[in-house]
Amino acid sequence: MASSLTCAGIIWAFLSFLCAAASCVGFFMPYWLLGSQLEKSVSFGTFRRCSYPVRDESRQMTVMVEQCGRYASFQAIPSAEWRICTVVTGLGCGLLLLVALTALMGCCVSELISRTVGRVAGGIQFLGG
What we know:
single chain, alpha+beta, 3 helices
């Protein structure tokens, strides 16, 4: 397998993949904010949450659901700012993954990544970050 990447390009490809993977894991995990509510530990991220309060209409009280899950819909995310954060962070992770996987393919395929493609990929990474 021939590669058009230099040693620095190969290092860039692997570091790009590691950073993209770390960003995606951080985006999908619901441990951005930790705290307690109704004497239970709670945590949530952009679109997942663990141990959240729900109104029980049959007993007319608020109970804690002690499980992790996504919000029921995009509109169920608490605020407009949090929805914007979800979209922007998700798009950034998608861009980072796109560049990282393209760079890794460049390690195996010759003439895939030229100087111009490398510069464009760097710009996309900057935008994704």
